[in-house]
Amino acid sequence: MMIDTGKALQRAEFELMRLVSNALTGPVRLPNPFRPSLRDQVAGKTVLITGASSGIGRGLAARVAEAGAIAVVTARRTAELDQLVAEIRGKGGSAFAITSDLSTAEGIEKLADDMLVEFGAPDILVNNAGRSIRRPLNRSAERLHDFERTMRVNYFGAVGLILRLLPDMREKKAAQIITSSSVGTLTYPPQFSAYVGSKAALDAVMRIAAIETLSDGVVFTKVHLPMIDTAMAAPEGLHAYTKLPVDTAVDMMVDGIIRRPDDVQDLLGIAGAWLNLLAPGLVKHALHAVHHRMPPRPAPAPQHRTQPTARAHQPAD
Ligand SMILES: NC(=O)c1ccc[n+]([C@@H]2O[C@H](COP(=O)([O-])OP(=O)(O)OC[C@H]3O[C@@H](n4cnc5c(N)ncnc54)[C@H](OP(=O)(O)O)[C@@H]3O)[C@@H](O)[C@H]2O)c1
């Protein structure tokens, strides 16, 4: 039997990368006996969570409602939201749904209006709705729309909501705005420029907003999530590297709500940020090598090419 040495070496290289990245991902938490519980932080408070019809937002909504929060959940898919609300209420929790499309100015306005009229300003706003695209620049020459649509939801959807809700949240003198950012804004992975660009832009706005609202008691927390096993990440074909469960991401978001830091990162994010600071040239060459070894993004399933889908984070060509 002939052994293909090239393929075997490439396989070994993938395995090594998978082991290293999996070892580095997951929340970093030092033991702290004085750490408040999630219930201490959210019981009786209103938490607005965007992108709650699936994945991380759904998991977080269930978690905060279980801890006594009033969870107001929003996304485009009404049936999924209604099911989540029923599940939460079935367990004795408190939840309400507002359907909204955050890719339009009207959708943002409607959500903000409904929220303020029906529930008042949230104590915690979780900007979690998002979509992802992985595509190298050499395949993007005529695809400005990839950058526009990631910006529309990930950046303008979140910024629009912040602008509308912040004045009332400032009045509370103790509010938090938390976002599902990406480890990519610390590590700059190749082929994710449209996605990471939109997340990094929101991170920058949050940093400045945190400075301007410091004396109003509004905390801005960016949670730099690693790759999580949700519908969004499924089309990327990169699961072998970092197949982390939704609970890991929810744990990181909960950590952000409990400790209220500026940033929540895992070891991968911390290592990425430091390496980019200390040895940016080395990191650039290493990531260039990774770029050439990344498997191509799988082609979209045939139905996605012929039928418009309600789920914008599905492969969209
Ligand atoms: N999964 C990962 O590897 C990963 C890593 C880092 C960061 N994140 C971030 O985590 C967040 C949640 O993603 P997920 O992994 O949980 O994926 P997901 O299960 O696909 O959830 C995405 C959510 O965003 C909502 N959404 C998408 N477009 C929207 C729009 N135009 N208007 C309103 N809601 C919209 C979706 O609801 P509808 O389709 O019902 O509208 C869905 O609830 C995203 O911001 C993502 O960028 C994810």
From TrEMBL:
GO terms for cellular component: membrane. Keywords: Oxidoreductase. The keyword Nucleotidyltransferase does not apply. SMART domains: PKS_KR. Transmembrane segments: none annotated. It comes from the Bacteria. One of its GO terms (molecular function) is oxidoreductase activity. Residues 45-241 form the Ketoreductase domain. PROSITE patterns: ADH_SHORT. Residues 293-317 are annotated as: Disordered. Belongs to the short-chain dehydrogenases/reductases (SDR) family. This is Short-subunit dehydrogenase. The lineage of its organism: Bacteria, Bacillati, Actinomycetota, Actinomycetes, Mycobacteriales.
